[in-house]
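Sorry to interrupt, but I need a hand with the structure work. I would like you to pick a protein and set down its sequence and fold. Please put the record directly below this note.
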Amino acid sequence: MDFYGIDRNATIDHCDSLALGRHDRDTQNISSWNRIRPEHVVDLLDQAATDARGDARDLAVMLSRFAWRISSGSASAQGNSNRIVNNVREITVSVAGRNFQLHCTETPSLKLERITA
């Protein structure tokens, strides 16, 4: 199945995460976030918010061409330290020597709102 004109399965196969355990890569220094799998990242990019669709398309092209990793995920306070609960989640995707933060809201499922490098 295609998204943005890119082969979805080929993109997922390029993921080089610890969970998938590709042995030809140096993975001992990468921590994985076991709740987010490669197919989840592809779905987030495919269903990104309108404002993030251009960046999502560009990142999807990179993911389809190069090996990539889901290197971490964390909650983000976004400068509002008085809040205990926050529905913003960040997923870090590493591809082509760069890290991209996928800023998602959880309402109740994850929705990609913006991407930063």
Summary: Residues 21-34, 75-86 have pLDDT under 50 and may be disordered. Residues 2-116 form one domain. The helical segments are 8-13, 38-46, 53-65. The chain has one domain: 2-116.
